[in-house]
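Before the break, one more example. Copy the sequence into your notebook; we will annotate it together after we see the structure.
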Amino acid sequence: MATYLVDGARIYAREDGPRSGQICLCIHGWSSSWYALSPLLPLLARRFRCVAVDLPGYGNSERLHGRITIVRYADMLVRLVQELTDSPAVIVGHSMGGMIGITMALRYPQLVDRLVLLCPTISGLLSTYINAVVSPITMLERYPVANRLVAALEPWVNGLTDRIMRPASFAERTEISDEDYTRLRADARRPGQGRVRAECYWAMRANDLRGRLGQLETPGLVIWGAEDNTVPLRDAGVVADEWRGVDLRIVPKAGHWPQFETPAFTRKAIAAYLGLPLVTTRLEDSTNPDEVVRRAAEFLANSDIGNGMTFAQRSRLAAQCRLRIYRPGDLIAPANDECTDLYIVQDGSVEVWAEPGPGDETSPRQLTTVLRGQVTGEMALLDGGRRSAALRAGEEGATLLVLRRERLRALIGDDPELGNAAIWNIAATLALRLRLANWQQQLIYQELQEARGE
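Here is what the structure looks like once it is written out:
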């Protein structure tokens, strides 16, 4: 497992996926560990660099000094994202992890691209069953003497607590395997977690998100088990009422763990939302043009240019693109070249390099890296100018969908709704990048002021 030092606390994380991919931060819930999101990692890793953390105090990660709050967890994870990337991340959160993810998006909208939440805690008020049966033990765990007593008795009452927690966690007709159930219960019974569990229980109650979801700028997918007896479905009603950019799915035959209980449905919903392939066939291995277009359309669902489009619109847009594949380090486009192409990174990455000017003896300098789903070339494509930097394939190579200017113009004339959606998404991408750059500049300015003692 990878290890990161954030605010003096050592955080462990399970990582998977391409190193050059967009960061996908996976956040588990109460009494859990990174394993809570493990069923989704193989799917997410086909496109993203997945970082599934053990929150401080859980799994292998160290406890925090001082009181745990949801805001404190959110701020720590934002700093972890900043350490890993200078681009917005996708957040996948389960239960309390969903509350943390929403808090991150509310406090730092520039750094959260999309949210995928499984049974997220919204009000902080857990189900009547949890509050009546589990919370008395949790309240005892807040106090050192009672916590030691509960910990000492726990090995003798594990069977009883398992029988108490199973109906709170899983549906009556759940598909969870015995192996996964045993592992999840082991995480919940990990020694030394009593005080952390107690602090997180009250931290969730103190972080009520009702009345705040309307402020979310980040789009999201929320999947909820119809038989969730941990986080009640009344919280799903708050999501439906307040969050304008949400896709809410209620799943039959699932409780609080749809990623384990109804894995096929959960993976399919997430794959459709994030534009992930459910199979691993590479586009260049397919000789069927229709299959190439279909897979490209699926991919465009979570791309800068395809955001908010229907599958039919994405299919038509994909049909206007050409597929190009580059080896690591290949020159894609030179600096000062006349630009007629918009590049959409489907796989690998694209490096942007500043070339030295006439008489300048300095070496080329890498400016940034364009990741999967992101576009480059949009400025020159729109204003007809020349390219200000060179583009090269990243260390894993690059697979690009290329949209030429005349194709985009023809699309606008032939299908104004689709063409306007594409132009709007390109403009929104430019605005978001400018916002992020301004925010990063403000952070640098604040750090300089602090260093000067101002």
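The first helix runs from residue 41 to 44. The domain at 2-274 is CATH 3.40.50.1820 (Rossmann fold). Try to locate both features in your own notes.
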